[in-house]
Write a structure and sequence with these properties.
By secondary structure, the chain is an alpha+beta fold. 39% of the residues lie in helices and 26% in strands. α5 runs antiparallel to α15 (481-496). The protein starts with a strand and ends in a 7-residue tail after the last strand.
Length: 670
């Protein structure tokens, strides 16, 4: 965004503060701002209707407004516009409520600085852009997911639905996937008509791990019974433990009904075959019937005396009768058999297709005295062939559409990955004890290795004061779109918690509370581990809080010691987003020049070798001790090479994030 010209609307009733804010924007080093000022909310709304802006800075107490409700008015008029709220009161609860209403930030007027205002505008616009891009990608993914005709599900081994799409809810007769998951809590007892059917499903899954065309009768929500066909597979973790089943469901009720109808028809057909299964007749040289079997008699609805001596014109439509006699004359003339499929229409019935075989009928002297024929109804076969051709055409069209949508989804995931990478620090803050200092007292290094398009690992490095740096690292379970969205939320929350960033325990407690409040509305908990470190070169301390995250390593090079950073209480604390009342403690360690603190996610050591042996945390600690004298960047690269060597060169199974804070030789503490 550096150097980008931004058009910003300022809605501020205090002209003194408006001039003060305009002066601060004039001092911005990386932003060029065209500021439009209005002192009333209604005038500001009129400006938004008339022109386009990149952001709005809104006074909380604008006279003709309604406080926080003003945010909703602006979002309704310009939903794609970032909003920064300003106010007189330094109130954390008010700031959180402002963000909940839809604003990107809340700034206290008497605490504003030119640099702080510039950063707030830049961060608000960037956060809004990333949020909109991720939401757009998620909406398109769910739109495709919910437009599928087949039902899609995930169930626990015990028989509870974890996930369902709109098609499955529609097949089962529920108003929504949420209604289905909430209501249908015992698949074995509530879904299948036949007792023990779920047990048979489980037995087959335990034996094969996959199942196809598992056909069953089930109860819809209204009590009606339908037929379904299930295709399913078992999902296991790396240790082979069963996690859940996932698969698809197809409503095959119409097909089953058609099959039942066909079976009934076949039963009737076979009973007729036991007598005289086909229509058989004979004609003389003049085209008159001389014989007909009982099946043919029944077909015409005539007795044999009523048929003999008559011609096709006495029973069939004139155009068909003429065609039949034309074919008869050809058989008699050539002396060769004729076999074909042709239209046929019995008296009082619809047209049909029949397979016809006609052969010359020789007399006693070998001369042709007429012909004999046999025919049978093949209408269903003909219609089935036509239906198959139509269905194959539709399937080919569906496959092409699905390939195009998959390609589009891949493009969107690639864009989401690029956006997510921009969330990571692009440069580190410098800590210079004096203008003559040769370099920063704190040196930072990181390695980020995502395994998929988007992932759940994230870290950030912040300058908290002239002497203190904050390092935050987290790992959201999974590495898909859902994990990426949670990561984006955490990044936004971390930015909002800058006022308490110097107190690790308070920072982590507030972050957990805010995250729980957000995830509560989704109904889906997401396991998130995190570690937050505040390092102060002047006090020579490292203060930290841990939320279920792997313990970072403290490399005390001068003492020749490498040890994990454990909690002061000796007890672990829960991951984020699980318990909204969790309180996190602050622990402290001494920093000495030459020390390196190495933070990492569990993807670094969750690696298997060809013998299915896991790379343990003890091995990781041993490798860190061996490589401790090396500079952080070289240490990280060699450590990654050793782990890859352990796994025989295979890629990491999970996202990997390594962050290092190195304390170089600084001035003596005061």
């Amino acid at each position: 965004m550096a150097g980008e010209a931004l058009k910003i609307l300022l809605i501020e009733h205090d002209p003194v503060f408006a001039r003060y804010l305009a002066d601060m924007l004039d001092q911005a080093r990386e932003l060029s701002v065209d500021l439009e000022l209005t002192s009333q909310l209604q005038a500001g709304l009129a400006e938004l209707r008339a022109a386009s802006f990149d952001a709005v800075i809104l006074d909380l107490c604008v006279p003709d407004g309604a406080g926080l409700a003003n945010v909703g008015l602006i979002r309704a008029l310009a939903p794609g516009l970032p909003i920064i709220m300003t106010g007189e009161v330094d109130d954390e609860i008010l700031a959180v409520e402002t963000v909940h209403e839809g604003a990107q930030d809340y700034l206290v007027k008497d605490q504003l600085t030119p640099g702080g205002l510039e950063r707030a505008i830049r961060y608000a616009i960037e956060r809004h852009r990333m949020d909109m891009a991720l939401l757009a990608a998620e909406e398109k993914y769910h739109s495709l997911f919910d437009r599928l005709v087949e039902g899609i599900f995930q169930t626990t081994p015990e028989g509870q639905y974890q996930m369902a799409n709109v098609a499955l809810a529609r097949i089962y007769g529920y108003s929504s996937p949420e209604d289905l998951i909430r209501t249908l809590t015992d698949i074995g007892r509530s879904l299948y008509v036949k007792p023990g059917r779920r047990d048979e499903f489980i037995r087959l899954m335990q034996k094969h791990d996959t199942i196809t065309d598992f056909e069953s009768q089930i109860f819809r929500r209204d009590g009606t019974v339908i037929w379904i066909s299930e295709h399913c597979r078992a999902i296991r973790n790396e240790q082979g433990r069963l996690l859940y089943y996932e698969g698809t469901v197809e409503d095959i009720t119409e097909r089953k009904q058609a099959e039942e109808n066909l079976r009934n028809s076949e039963a009737l057909y076979h009973s007729l075959v036991e007598t005289l299964p086909q229509n058989i007749f004979r004609k003389d040289l003049q085209g008159r019937f001389s014989f007909a079997n009982q099946q043919f008699c029944r077909s015409l609805g005539k007795t044999l005396p009523e048929i003999v001596g008559k011609t096709d014109f006495d029973f069939f439509p004139p155009e068909l009768a003429a065609k039949y006699q034309h074919d008869d004359r050809q058989v008699i003339k050539t002396g060769k058999s004729c076999e074909k499929v042709e239209e046929h229409q019995l008296p009082g019935r619809e047209k049909m297709y029949v397979q016809v075989v006609k052969t010359p009928l020789p007399g006693a002297d070998g001369a042709t005295i007429g012909l004999q024929g046999i025919f049978w109804d093949i209408t269903q076969q003909r219609l089935a062939d036509e239906k198959i051709r139509r269905v194959n055409g539709l399937l080919a069209q569906s496959r092409n559409e699905l390939r195009a949508k998959n390609a589009q989804m891949q493009d969107e995931l690639k864009m989401a990955q690029e956006i997510q990478l921009t969330m990571l620090p692009q440069q580190y803050p410098a800590f210079l004890p004096s203008s003559e200092a040769p370099g920063s007292v704190f040196q930072f290094t990181h390695r980020y290795l995502p395994t998929g398009s988007v992932g759940g690992d994230f870290f950030t490095v912040s300058r908290l004061s002239e002497t203190a740096a904050g390092v935050f690292i987290c790992d959201v379970a999974g590495h898909g779109v859902q994990a990426a969205l949670v990561t984006a939320m955490i990044r936004a929350l971390v930015e909002e918690l800058k006022p308490v960033a110097t107190e690790p325990g308070q920072f982590m407690t507030k972050l957990n509370s805010d995250l729980c409040a957000i995830l509560k509305h989704t109904g889906t908990p997401m396991l998130t581990t995190a570690f937050y470190l505040v390092a102060d070169w002047q006090a020579r301390t490292a203060r930290y809080a841990n939320a279920g995250h792997p313990k970072p390593f403290h490399l005390r090079r001068a003492a020749g010691v490498v040890e994990p950073l454990a909690n002061a209480s000796g007890k672990s604390q829960p991951a984020l987003g699980l318990f909204d009342d969790a309180a996190y403690q602050t622990s402290e360690a001494k920093l000495c020049p030459g020390d390196l603190i190495m933070l990492f996610t569990d993807g670094l050591y969750e690696v298997e070798n060809p013998e299915n042996q896991l790379y343990s945390q003890d091995q990781l600690l041993a490798s860190a001790r061996q490589l401790a004298p090396l500079p952080a960047a070289q240490l990280f690269d060699q450590l990654l090479d050793q782990i890859k060597g352990f796994s025989a060169g295979t890629e990491f199974a999970d996202d990997v994030c390594l962050v290092g804070l190195e304390f170089t030789q600084g001035p003596a503490p005061k």
